[in-house]
Amino acid sequence: MEVAMEFTIGSFRALRFDGFIPVSQMSSSIKLVTNDPGIYVVLRTRTNNPTFLENSVGGKFKQRNPTVSIERLQHEWVDGAETLYI
User: Fold this and answer.
1) Whole-angstrom Cα distance, residue 68 to residue 65?
2) How far apart are CA 49 and CA 46, in angstroms?
3) Cα–Cα distance for residue pair 53/67, rounded to 1 Å
4) What is the sign, positive or negative, of the torsion defined by CA atoms of 13, 19, 52, 62?
5) In 3D, which of 58, 49, 40 has the Cα closest to residue 81?
6) What pLDDT tens digit does each residue of the chain (86 aa) get?
7) In degrees rounded to 5, what are phi and psi of residue 68?
């Protein structure tokens, strides 16, 4: 029997994920992020819709600007999403 996985903070905690660090504290806690193999997850704790930037601040990828339109980001945003990246 297969059980559907919810990608929520609660479900990750129930799976015994640990080391939750707010992005606002990452610069002072970066040494807590290890080089060890594992699964790293980026979660969002706010429930309101995000504000998107006009230009990506993530740098270039393969010499290309990764910026996409705000309209595309708004269209593809999933209301209530907690998991942003695995």
Assistant:
1) 9
2) 8
3) 9
4) negative
5) 49
6) 566 678 888 898 998 988 888 777 777 666 767 788 888 888 888 888 889 999 888 778 788 888 999 999 999 999 888 888 88
7) -120, 165
Q: What is the pTM of this model?
A: 0.67
Q: Which two tokens stand for residue 48?
A: 């309101």
| Strands 42-43 and 83-85, bridge-based pairing | antiparallel
Give me the pLDDT at residue 74, please.
Answer: 94
3-state secondary structure labels for all residues of the chain? CCCCCCCCHHHHHHCCCCCCCCHHHHHHHHHHCCCCCCCCCEECCCCCCCCCCCCCCCCCECCECCCCCHHHHHHHCCCCCCEEEC
Place of tokens 């080089």: 35
pLDDT for the residue numbered 69: 94
